[in-house]
Write a structure and sequence with these properties.
The protein is mainly beta and 226 residues long. The chain has four helices and 15 strands. The strands form two sheets. Strands 2, 4, 5, 6, 7, 10, 11, 12, 13 and 14 form a ten-stranded mixed beta sheet that branches. Strands 3-1-8-9-15 form a five-stranded antiparallel beta sheet, with no helix packed on it.
């Protein structure tokens, strides 16, 4: 799964590594991004890839209210086509969610050690995501735009920590994933199965990351686990 992640790359770095045509938001670093917060996402509108902010926790367009979003921060890639919450978004509303790493916890309950996971070379990467717009059937004064991060079975290096991991797309998959001309479900499923990174470096970090209020660069500083 993915319940907490990190994004410290600045605007210039994001433009260098991702297919971004327009930036509509301010880019600020965060070392402890949590569900329900606004997060950066690359979506496609009017033939342009736009960097914007979406609420983390997908609210389907048919939902009665936005409270469902807190339960939909992740979407299992294996069952996307079977879930009404994700089927339409898979066809029409896919996004890239830039990140520099994410956290996972290892160990028994009460003694869990937080780990920071990132690409071996430290480059920023993109989670595969889906997004939606909710307006309470036209009754909401402001549309609520939200997203979810796809997950898959963990790679071999991550499996001892957790059996699930986020879908981290390889750069060659970005264009097809974002393209609104691509509604080939089998091709989309193939992308999130095969054009991905599954082996990451794993770094023990301070338990200060357990508290969302602790949001500073020291969160990803390596420590010697007890």
């Amino acid at each position: 799964m993915c319940g907490r992640f990190v994004g410290f790359s600045n605007r210039e770095t994001l433009i260098k590594h991702f297919p971004i045509d327009a930036v509509n938001v301010e880019v600020t670093p965060s070392y402890n991004i949590a569900p329900t917060q606004d997060i950066l996402a690359i979506t496609r509108h009017d033939e342009k890839n736009r960097l914007e902010k979406l609420h983390w926790g997908l609210v389907p367009f048919w939902a009665k209210d936005i409270s469902i979003g807190s339960r939909m921060i992740n979407a299992r890639s294996e069952t996307l086509t079977a879930k009404p919450s994700f089927r339409t978004a898979l066809l029409w509303r896919r996004c890239l969610i830039p990140a520099d790493g994410f956290y996972e916890w290892k160990g028994a309950k009460g003694q869990k050690q937080p780990m920071f996971l990132a690409l071996p070379d430290g480059r920023p990467f993109a989670f595969a995501g889906l997004w939606e717009t909710w307006d309470n059937r036209g009754k909401a004064s402001t549309p609520y735009r939200s997203c979810t991060i796809l997950t898959r079975q963990a790679g071999t290096t991550i499996m001892p920590i957790h059996h699930r991991m986020p879908v981290i797309l390889r750069p060659e998959a970005y264009a097809l994933w974002l393209s609104r001309d691509n509604q080939d479900v089998q091709l989309l499923l193939k992308i999130i199965r095969s054009q991905v990174y599954t082996e990451l470096k794993i770094i023990p970090v301070s338990k200060q990351v357990n508290a969302v209020r602790n949001n500073r660069p020291d969160n990803i500083k390596p420590i010697s686990p007890a």
